[in-house]
Write a structure and sequence with these properties.
Elements lengths: L3 E3 L7 H7 L16 E5 L2 E5 L7 E7 L16 E4 L5 E4 L7 E8 L12 E3 L8 E3 L8 E7 L2 E6 L4 E4 L6 E3 L7 E7 L5 E6 L4 E4 L6 E2 L10 E6 L4 E5 L4 E4 L6 E3 L7 E7 L4 E6 L4 E4 L6 E2 L8 E7 L2 E6 L4 E4 L5 E3 L8 E6 L3 E5 L4 E3 L8 E3 L7 E7 L2 E6 L4 E4 L1
Organism: Silvimonas amylolytica
Keywords: Signal
Protein name: Fibronectin type-III domain-containing protein
């Protein structure tokens, strides 16, 4: 999980400032940290730098357009943090206000050296303004996941790409030419990225760069459309009711199919320790263990492609602008989307957001009942949306990638 820090007032002392500010660069053996970067997010700021071994880093910040090592403690909402590691996320910020950060470093018992230049950002609520990145590749992108500092996107022809910021992407080789439809990551199990796709394909990677094809194809040839995990095991679902589970991402067990219909999406709700899967013809099922499933009445016969939970609510989206919402995961109600485009993916961040065909993006507030459109600056189909690092990232056909924060 991201390192989180809520803004607090820190009672500074002369001794503390003396430790983190030498006042004379010749008394320190450590130069200003390189690659210092601050990115705005939704109620947060993402701070990264080129971290070196055995170097201790000090972070300074405040709600101000001008912050220095010397004045930081006199600024509103000031922070002075010793021992931070990259990447660092400063949360609890107020959208629309200016925040500034800088950093210096020390080694051993030496005083800290010179500081970086201050960098200012303005956090902005996500889901309203979108910024396109350069096309990732010719491949259509179907799924994505994230581990601290690294996005991984997967798609057609075995495509996989990595990014540290969601805007600049590097192609990787997965060792397969099969389409990859979804990906997940958890450090609680094998600490690897897992991607699933056509003809039972499963590939894994420890870093998003080096991939290995697993032997699931000998277990099933069904298309695997979605994958998630609960911290104890992975669950992948796909065509013809296919369900597969694994405790290590390498050895997979084919479970008895709970339905003959196709699954298209899955999520895990940690608040009630339950998996929810959606699919063909309004299919909606739940499971507490990943292999015994109960059918729920979604209230629609439209295909459902994605499901998300948040704010003690559940939202599923699908074909022809279909949105259904529930306050108990038992009784579902159709919502008005004002679009006939297919909605391929939904996520809960600071609110529900759904994306789909023709570049459609919808904000569903925190209730999932009042949906309004926003312009993601593309007419390409958006197949996947995530909310990592307090930023929305939507990916789609032709390598389309667009960020909102």
């Amino acid at each position: 999980m991201n390192t989180l820090f809520n803004w607090v007032a820190i009672a500074g002392t002369c001794a503390l400032l003396a430790a983190c500010n030498s006042g004379d660069s010749t008394s320190s053996n450590q130069p200003a940290p390189s690659g210092f970067k601050v990115q705005p997010a939704d109620g947060a700021a993402i701070i990264t730098w080129n971290q070196e071994l055995n170097v201790n880093y000090w972070l300074f910040g405040a709600q101000s357009s001008s912050v220095t090592v010397q004045n930081v403690l006199s600024q509103p909402g000031s922070i002075l943090i010793d021992g931070v590691t990259s990447p660092y996320v400063s949360t609890g910020l107020t959208n629309g206000l200016v925040y500034s950060y800088l950093m210096n470093a020390n080694t051993g018992s030496d005083k800290a050296g010179p500081a970086t230049a201050a960098v200012s950002v303005v956090p902005v609520a996500s889901g309203y303004t979108w910024t396109n990145g350069a096309p990732m590749a010719a491949a259509n992108i179907y799924g994505q996941t994230f581990n601290l500092g690294t996005y991984v996107a997967v798609g057609a022809g075995g495509a996989a790409l990595t990014s540290s910021d969601g805007a600049t992407w590097t192609p990787q080789s997965t060792g397969t030419t099969e389409d990859l439809y979804a990906a997940t990551y958890t450090s609680s199990l094998a600490a690897v990225y897992v991607a699933v796709g056509a003809n039972g394909t499963i590939v894994t990677s420890p870093d998003g760069v080096t991939w290995k094809v697993q032997t699931s194809g000998s277990i099933t040839s069904a298309n695997l459309r979605a994958v998630t995990q609960n911290g104890s095991y992975y669950v992948a679902v796909g065509d013809n009711g296919t369900v597969m589970t694994s405790t290590n991402a390498y050895d997979w067990t084919l479970q008895a199919a709970p339905t003959s219909s196709n699954f298209y999406g899955i999520t895990y709700d940690s608040t009630n320790s339950t998996f929810y899967a959606v699919g063909q013809g309004g299919l909606l099922m739940s499971s507490t263990d990943g292999w015994q499933w109960t059918t729920l009445n979604s209230g629609t016969t439209q295909d459902l492609y994605s499901i998300a939970t948040g704010n003690s609510l559940w939202v599923a989206v699908g074909a022809n602008g279909t949105i259904v919402q529930s306050a108990d995961a038992g009784t579902w109600y159709p919502q008005t989307s004002n679009t006939s485009e297919n909605l391929y993916s939904v996520v809960y961040g600071s609110q529900f957001v759904a994306v789909g065909g023709g570049g459609i993006a919808l904000n569903g507030t925190t209730t999932g009942t009042a949906w309004t459109g926003s312009n993601p600056q593309t007419s390409s189909d958006l197949r996947s949306v995530s909310f990592f690092y307090y930023r929305l990232l939507a990916l789609g056909t032709g390598g389309t990638n667009t960020l909102s924060y």
